[in-house]
Write a structure and sequence with these properties.
Number of domains: 2
Shape: globular
Helix content: over 70%
Largest sheet: none
Number of helices: 9
Number of strands: 0
Distance between the termini: 46 Å
Order of helices and strands: HHHHHHHHH
Strand content: under 5%
Radius of gyration: 21 Å
Structural class: mainly alpha
Length: 247
């Protein structure tokens, strides 16, 4: 687990006012906190904060939706939707529209978590392994559920055996290892890139406050966008392969 030398101000507030509810929840599920007085960690409070920010933004957008005179926020989010929809149409094909809400939500959520670390006093929750791991597990469950819904249990499981029956002893272990490795791959890719980007940015911020930090913060923004897109794109590929009907 990533080390945190100092709790963020958000974490201090949560530990001050909401330590007891989280302690009770952790105890109820059989995983009591190591320090009952400080059960909240930075990555948890940052993830909650990102969710609240997104909810507020969409609430503002909902109250200002306009067909004739769309605002900048509406134009930006419509552009994101169109981009995700175009990627889904290209990667999944017919019927891709029903997957766009999940893919778009995933992209926006990861993007906001990656970007919040640029703001002084905050950090990117995606630089903690637990967050990418949770996202990766949700993707794994989602594309397999979509595969079962698209093909039925029997036909979906049958594709693990390969195109001909006599290849099943070879194909089944390969397919199982391949699918089980996907959450690990998604987790490591997102965590490692965001952790490295955050450390590089903070190192140069500590050395100088003029030109170098701006350059590396710009690089951090680029990496944040790129990693959100790659995570979404890989999810799209997994969904596409799960729901594809071979002819």
């Amino acid at each position: 687990m990533q080390e945190h030398e100092v709790d963020l101000w958000t974490t201090k507030l949560f530990n001050q006012y909401l330590a007891s509810p989280l302690d009770s929840l952790l105890t109820a599920i059989g995983h009591p906190a190591a320090d009952p007085a400080h059960p909240w960690e930075n990555w948890i409070t940052m993830e909650i904060l990102v969710v609240l920010i997104i909810m507020v933004l969409f609430a503002i957008l909902r109250s200002r939706l306009s067909y004739d005179k769309p605002g900048k926020l509406q134009i930006t989010l419509e552009a994101i939707y169109d981009f995700v929809a175009a990627q889904a149409s290209e990667g999944i094909g017919h019927g891709s529209g029903k997957f766009v809400p999940f893919l778009g939500t995933l992209f926006i959520f990861i993007l906001f978590m990656n970007m919040i670390g640029i703001i002084p006093g905050f950090e990117s929750p995606t630089m903690t392994p637990a967050v990418p791991a949770g996202l990766a597990v949700s993707v794994f469950l989602y594309y397999n559920v979509m595969g079962f819904k698209s093909h039925g249990v029997g036909r979906y499981l049958a594709h693990f055996a390969g195109p001909v029956w006599w290849m099943a002893p070879i194909m089944i272990p390969i397919e199982l290892i391949s699918h089980l490795a996907r959450p690990l791959s998604l987790t490591i890719r997102l965590f490692a890139n965001m952790f490295a980007g955050e450390k590089v940015t903070m190192t140069f911020l500590g050395l100088t406050y003029i030109l170098a930090p701006a350059i590396f913060m710009g690089l951090h923004v680029f990496v944040g966008f790129l990693q959100a897109f790659i995570f979404m794109l890989l999810t799209l590929i997994y969904v596409g392969s799960a729901v594809a009907h071979e002819h």
